[in-house]
Amino acid sequence: MSVSLLNLAASVVVTGVREEDLRDTRWSGYPFGGFIFFDRNTGSLAELRALTDRLRARYDLAPILAIDQEGGRVMRLREGVAPMPCAAEIGGDAELAERIGTRCASDLRRAGCNLDFAPVVDLAVDPKNVVIGDRSFGSDPHVVAGSARAFARGLEGGGVVATYKHFPGHGATAIDSHHALPIISLDEGTLRSRDLVPFAAVASSARAMMTAHVVVTALDPGVPATLSSRILTTLLRGELGFDGVCFTDCLQMQAVASEYGSVEGAWRALRAGADALTVSHDPTLAVAIAQRVARAVEEGELAPERLHEAAGRLERLRALLQPPLPI
C-alpha cells in the first residue's frame, strides 16, 4: 500500500481526539482531514482553543475543526460562550436564528473551531422521537427551512461553515440511530412534500451536509441513507444539486456499527457518495478506516476517482476555512 494512497484515504476521515491521544504515535502521522470535539475537550473556551491551536500547528493546510454547537441540550462548549436556546424555542423566528448563528460563530472562532455540525433540518413530526425532539425548529418544513437557513447565514457570515443535518431526515422515527437502525416507512409522496422540503431548499447553496443513519424504504429499502448511492448520489447530488462536502454521521453509532461494522460501513459510505467519514471517539479506529479505504481502492472495490473526488471537495473546503479570532 503506497504512502500517497494511504494519506489520501486519511484526508477524508474526520476523527475525535482526547488529550492522551495526542501522545499516541499510532495515528500521529496520518493527515486526517479534520477533528471533531465533544464535552471531553471543552472544559472551557480557553482549553479548547489550546487544543485547536495544537492541532492546527500540525498542518500546512488547516484541518476541519468541527463541533456540534446547536443550542439547547446539544452544546459541546458551554463555559465562556453565550447561552443558546434550542431550535424549538427559536421556531420560525428567522431574525433571531440569524442573530444566534452570528453570536455562535464568534464564540466558535475564538475557540479555534471553523465548522459547526448545525443546524438541524429534521422535522419534529414524531412525538416519540427523542434523538431530534427540541433540536428541530418545528414540524412545518418551510418554517424549518427558513430558520435553518437564517442560522446558517449567521454562522457563515461570522466565518464558520454550517452543516445541515441529517439528510434525508431523522424526524419521522422514534428509534435513536445511536442505538439501533431506524426504518422510515413513509410513502415517497409524503417524503417529497414534507421531510425532504427543507433539505431541497438549502441543497444548492449548502457548503456542507451530514447524513442520517436511517433506512428510508421508499428511497432505498434495506440500505441506510449513509450507505446508499440512490440517496446520496442520485437524489442529493443529482436531483437536489448539492455540490458541497457530504459528512457521514458518526460511524461508531450502532445503526452502522452493529449492522455493518464501522470500518466496512466507512468505505461503503464513501462509495455511495459521502466525502467525509466521521469517527467521533477513536483515532485508532480512524486509522483502520483509512487503511481499509486505501485497500478498497487497491482491490477494486472503490473507484479511485471517487476517493479523489471526495478528497478534492474536502481540500477546497479546507482552503476556505477562516483562522481563529483572538480570545
Give an account of the 3D structure:
The chain is of the alpha/beta class. The protein has a single domain (3-320), classed as TIM Barrel (Alpha-Beta Barrel). The chain is 40% helix and 12% strand. It is built from twelve helices and 13 strands. The strands form four sheets. Strands 7-6-3-2-1-13 form a six-stranded parallel β-sheet. Strands 8-10-12 form a three-stranded parallel β-sheet. Strands 4-5 form a two-stranded antiparallel sheet. α4 (94-111) packs parallel to α5 (141-157). The chain is globular, with a radius of gyration of 18 Å. The model has no long low-confidence stretch (mean pLDDT 94).
The strand order across the widest sheet is 7-6-3-2-1-13
Low-confidence stretches: none
Strand and helix order: HEEHEEEHHEHEEEHHEEHEHHEHH
How would you describe the shape? globular
Instruction: Tell me the radius of gyration.
Output: 18 Å
Mean pLDDT over the residues: 94
User: Approximately what portion of the residues adopt beta-strand conformation?
Assistant: 5-15%
CATH class: Alpha Beta
End-to-end separation in angstroms reads 43 Å
Largest sheet: 6 strands, parallel
Tally of structural domains: 1
